[in-house]
Amino acid sequence: MSMYVLFETSSGYSLFERTGMEEIGAKLSQVQEAAGKAAMFSKVVRLVSFVPFKSAADALENANDVSEGVVNETLSGFLEMNLGKFKAANFELGVGERNLAGAIKQQLGYNCVSDEIVLELIRGIRAHADVLLKQMKESELYQAQLGLGHSYSRAKVKFNVNRSDNMIIQAIGLLDQLDKDVNTFAMRAREWYSWHFPELGKIVSDHGQFARLVKIIRNKSTLTEDQLPAIEEVVQDEARARQILDASRTSMGTDISEVDLINIENFATRVVSITDYRKSLHEYLLSKMGHVAPNLGALIGEMVGARLIAHAGSLTNLSKFPASTVQILGAEKALFRALKTRGKTPKYGLIYHSSFIGRAGVKNKGRISRFLANKCTIASRIDCYTETPTTKFGEALRKQVEGRLAFYEQGAAPQKNIDVMTSVVNELKAEESSAAADPASDELVLEEKVEKKIKKKQLEADMAVDEETVATPKKEKKKSKKNKKESGDGMDVDTPVSSKKKKSKK
Fold it and tell me: Where are the residues of the annotated region Disordered (predicted)?
């Protein structure tokens, strides 16, 4: 039985035939030894055919298909052209990618092999590609590999950036870290300032308000009625502001020096800045979730949805998870401990922080968590694969969960999922048709066209400026030549004079 090896390069597809079957046999050690030397390995394999890619875009498309295990038209046509004349039972095809091997076997019916010997043969072909592929030079192979590597990586990074789920992962991680830091710093500020004014910590529980009050009050002995409006602005309560003023007059705290007050005030300023940044980061996360995963945020809340995305690694990974995995996402330790000890498995993970789990009864917590995980899976898949983000599906799914809670508590009949989805789709279609008939939308389209024309003109102007800058040296040379002709510098002055004399004699 003959054996062929498919080798994907950055320049095209190549097919090699293994010729040294009897000499080296099927032992892995002998194949590894032969792959180390070009002279010996050239006797093991023989190039049968090579088809180059049409362009760099074609190479990128084929590289993406190979990585995803898809047999496109170029690859299938190449294999059928070279192997279609043989019977499938008379040869084996070695493929490095196992997913691609399975796709080729399913689509074309070839007997594909992807074992260690095939991988060693591919390694040897890659190492000695400049010798085996005689029609390709080493420099051309290197340039093609470099260009394809850059474009392939750029395409993957662009896909990740367009989804922007990485920004959500970083933001929720930073938000959790800031919560810990704010608590630590605020407790340190409370403990430090409480030596001077211990009653303030009992009256004000919010960390941000406490740090702002430290900056306003400073020394309790100098607190007067004039500072009462500023305190009231911080605590948003007139009675509490009056209580702080009264407590400062009867406080049991110790006196404090001006140097200590300066250091405490500086530290309180840092706490205030961190709390303000934490609020702005929270707003940024909410807006980012509204763009990337609006349905998931509308269903379960932006914070819980962001934690689900961060724990899954990306929105794409979360959309691929089944509902049973989403249900216990974040409770992996409890799950494996229960499996090891043969105890009860957890009913929920991160989705426990949703308000639906807390509102459900003790008997229905497992049911509602399973139902909520199912709806979270649907919402994440809609967010991941839709082109126009909308919150309609998330709001409809949230109503479904509300109806399921009412069904468990009161026995009210819930809506069917197909009816809910159909109504949302019809609503979106109606909105699209109304937007198309709205003259304001036509004005927006015209404005976009005008902006595109303006940008196009700007690009043409920039290109014209670049061409002028490139062409200026040539124009300057021509102008200098003309000036020299007119002035006579660098030219033979006798030539035009002699020609005039000849004309006058005639």
Answer: 461-506
What pLDDT, on the 0 to 100 scale, is given for residue 190?
A: 93
Q: Do the Cβ atoms of 312 and 321 come closer than 8 Å?
A: yes
Helices 165-193 & 138-163, crossing angle to 10 degrees? 60
How would you classify the pairing of strands 2-8 and 12-18? antiparallel
Per the DSSP assignment, residues forming a β-bridge with 51 are 13
Whether residue 304 contacts residue 350, with contact meaning beta carbons closer than 8 Å, is answered with yes
DSSP string covering 115-136: SHHHHHHHHHHHHTHHHH-TTS
**pLDDT at residue 172 is higher than 60:** yes
DSSP helix/strand/coil, 45: strand
Taking CB atoms within 8 Å and a gap of at least 24, the contacts of 279-283 are 281/171, 281/174, 281/175, 281/178, 282/175
The CA-atom distances, in angstroms, between 369 and each of 148, 401, 443 are: 46, 10, 47
Among 143-152, 222-231, 311-320, the range scoring the smallest mean pLDDT is: 143-152
User: Distance between CA atoms of 371 and 156, rounded to whole angstroms?
Assistant: 34
| Residue 113: φ, ψ to 5° | -125, 140
pLDDT digits (tens, 9 = 90+) for 181-237: 999 999 999 999 999 999 999 999 998 899 999 999 989 989 999 999 999 999 999
Cα separation of 92 and 436, whole Å? 57
Confidence (pLDDT) at 447: 57
Residue recorded with tokens 């919010």: 206
Q: What are phi and psi of 351, to 5 degrees?
A: -70, -5
- Give the domain 2-160 fold: Nucleotidyltransferase; domain 5 (3.30.420)
Through-space distance between the first and last CA atoms of the chain, rounded to whole angstroms: 98
Q: Which fold has domain 293-428?
A: Serum Albumin; Chain A, Domain 1 (1.10.246)
DSSP annotation of 345: P
How far apart, in whole angstroms, are the C-alpha atoms of residue 121 and residue 118? 5
Distance, in Å, from the CA atom of 433 to the CA atom of 107, rounded to the nearest integer, reads 42
pTM, entire model: 0.60
CATH 1.10.287.4070 is right for the domain spanning 169-285: yes
| 303 close to 278: Cβ distance less than 8 angstroms | no
Q: Which residues contact 151 (CB under 8 A, 6 or more apart)?
A: 56, 59, 60
Q: How many CB atoms lie within 10 A of CB 356?
A: 22
CA dihedral of residues 120, 126, 130, 132 (deg, nearest 10): 40
Amino acid at 1: M
d(CA 329, CA 380) in angstroms, rounded, equals 14
Where residue 25 falls among pLDDT bands split at 50, 70, 90? Answer: very low
